[in-house]
Records
---
Amino acid sequence: MRDRIREDLRAVKAKDPAARSHLEIVLATPGVWAIWMHRISHWLWIHGVKLPARYLSHVVRRRTGIEIHPGARLGRRVVIDHGMGVVIGETAVIGDDVLIYQGVTLGGVKRNGGKRHPTVGNRVMLGAHSTLLGPITIGDDARIGACVTLRRSIPAGASVREEVVISVRHGEDRAD
């Protein structure tokens, strides 16, 4: 447990030039607290203690502005920088060494069971206010720019910099 906490602190320090010390990160970085509390709520969730898991995630959302469903799976060294407004859905999977900026949404597009949220590979950067919807896959080392909306998978190493507007007409996906 201590090793994971140290690993998280080192990851934030490496990815956030404003982070001056581990103490400052602990005291003034809500993204770290959201991830630490998510680990507890996720443990409760996978062990069938669902109501307390959901309640803990709700408390954390009110405190940090970051909503991570307890069912979501987060890799190691995930950094949420300026995390206000981040939403990560129940079936989302996030790989290792991912950097998430403010306002990012990993959301679903349908209400039925099964995989409904994105899978994000390793070493991915998700720009501010980017929105990834549905059971899409973002490949390793991809970079998603600010304000990009995606409903299609992106291959490894790709960069998406321009806004992609997706409209839904009569239940079909169509890129405009």
Note: Helices lie at 2-15, 22-28, 30-46, 50-64.
---
Amino acid sequence: MDLTQNKLSKSEWESIEKKVSEPEEKILKLIVDGYDNVNIRYNETQSLTSYIQFDSNIEMDYFLFKRYFEQMMMSVITKYAGDNEVLSKYECKLSRGKIKKMKSGENIRLTNLENKIELNKSRIFEYLLIDLYTDLVKQIKLKKKKYSFYLYTIIQLKKANITGINVYVMDLIDYTLNYVNSFTQLSNIITNSYQFIEQNKYLLKYEDKALFNHQRELFTLCKNNSETKTPRLILYTAPTGTGKTLSPIGLAGSNRIIFVCVARHIGLALAKSAITMNKKVAFAFGCESAADIRLHYFAAIDYTVNTRSGGIWKVDNSVGDNVEIMICDVQSYITAMHYMLAFNTADSIITYWDEPTITLDYETHELHEVIHKNWSENLIPTMVLSCATLPSQEELREVYDDFREKFDNAEINIITSYDCKKSIPILNSNLYCVLPHTLYSNYSELMETVHHCKNNPTILRYFDLRETIRFIEYINDYIEIDEIYEIDNYFDKKITNITMNSLKEYYLELLLRIDSEEWGDIYKYMQTVRKPRFNEDRTNNYVKKVNSVEVQGTKSSLLQKGGNVLSRTVSMATTNVPPSQGEPRKCPVGISITTTDAYTLTDGPTIFLTDDVDKIGKFYIKLTNIPTAAFTEIITNIDSNNKLTSRLDKLENEIEHHNENSTTTWDNARMTKEVRALDNEIRKIRQQVKMVSLDSVYVPNTRIHQKRWTPDGSILENAFMANIGEEMSKEIMLLDVEDHMKFLLLLGIGVLKQTANKRYMEIMKQLADEQRLFIIIASTDYIYGTNYQFCHGFIGKDLSEMTQQKTLQSMGRVGRNNIQQDYTIRFRDDNMIQKIFKPQEHNMEAINMCKLFVTD
């Protein structure tokens, strides 16, 4: 992660001008509108009346029911429920007067819409309900247990805020639901809740769009504060990917915001979103004085106009009356604060400090002195500390007391939230799911962990739902518990009460109610029924050292910038080699993610967090087992391209030098002869770039790769593979980066590290944002504020000393999608998992906060 406190570069300025995607823009609008209406809720799914834009009333509903729905629904009853005494006797209790007589204009309009309605049934909610209703009745007829899936889905979809749903359609559906509910046991729903909840494609797709609860609390608190002017320190914690970093855009509705970020990419992402919503933004990065602050064009008041384009040319950055959101790095906070105070009163400003624990996991860091100065010299009486993990109230007493001492009558507000719409299972080094009941044979340790999870409910999202259900069922079937904690009673015999979140809370309640004398037997049994998440035979998964690759060429041409000759260090990995052939070393379970384990990485990219990204990258080059001839050709082509890179660098430096010494501004139309010649030579050299590629059998999760490496040679359609593209590959091959990083790209693997070439880093971030990489190998300093969508994560062995809070931050990189998929977080060191589930004895972040967030 780039923690340098420098001014924005030209490419960074250009990046914030790109609009976000249409779905993101809708979410931003929700946040902006939600500040004034925290209960805002909308659903883009349309009923038939809203789709055809007719008024919704009882007469219109009856007309549309008779015309579009009745025959369809009655035929379902005739076909599947004719012999059912209850369903076949359905009678509508609603008013059934005469069918509305349509006006001629309405009739013509409706007739013209007939084809459109037929083509777009999938977008009309009643047709979705009727499809689910059909499957429900059909499964009951066939006496299949799967009926309960459709029952659960319809009941949950009824919660959606969709206007104008046909009341006659709903009357028949409600009648059927009441009947089916009468003989459905909650235990059947819970048994199948993984399929019903976690794998249910309908629930997230059709749910309402609304603010998160933590955003509602924050907006309500700050709106009230606009009137009371009460100094406030707000501790704002919520899981990653739930909109914390976007909340300032909503707060700007009636406040001025100073957004403080240690990592610049967080601020740039906010700026891009804010500018999309036409917010007036300014920047303070690498500032030594107010003269270094820069206004975005939207915030400019005084400026000169470009006579050629008619747009803004030069901005007077000293006039900041219009600035709504000031985005600054930590170094520039005091400068940004005084700048904003020159145009606004202190009580109209909110300092929003994003991820204040960044660098606090280190005993010492160069930014600690800056952080302490910012807190000590802060004059803004309303401050939000926003983070996915913050120390507890007890641990931060000194910080609270200091804030109250500095600002009279100050209040401390705690906003905490957790999101359990997804399960992101933790897998240990042997690929077993880890939950509290699988970790501790000792009862007192179990109780300590359960209480810790209840006090830190964000951990619930990492409980595997399938393992949770297995435990719930066992306890209900075989262990005596208080009657009020039996399934039917706990959920009040209502299917609507069964959600992913409520099931995990119920799991913790059951653990608390288990007798200490019974725990030993329960633990032993649960250990015997455990199975690894991926249960195929791995007995033949070996890495064997064979002959080094012999490559023709000079030693200097093959040297990696890491220091060794690539051809002399890469041993070929072989699989399916029986032990009789030499002395093979068995590859660790679950780590062969370019070969035997590749197919387990599904639905989206994977992030591998480690302190030594080069070591892990080179390991996967070794593991992939590239034949000598192919390896030689790749190295030769990379070496050839490296020579072109050297020539290109010289030519580009010449152009830059020419430009710096030119007295006139040049562009394509006025380019000097010398520059044109250099530019033409650059184009010719780029055309000489040799395409470097791998046979698809070695590229993870291609069809031919899967046939070779999946346990039975089958093809998994959701196994994820990279999509780098030829143009992007060519550009990377010409960059001045280590050869092994170029080689990794052929496998779809990108690297994020602080010493990498800046252009390479920009490309990797773009590919990550567009989900075109198979794996990203990154150091933990890249975890904060990254909005890339990862479906799987690896936590490397070399991170064993990472703090609990930073570990949770690392885990938060996975599962940020708006859809439910199969997610996993895989720890290479099981001892690290223990840290997550227990209170910390030595909380480095809390210690540092109490040292740095206290005024001298």
Note: Residues 472 and 563 are 55 Å apart (CA to CA).
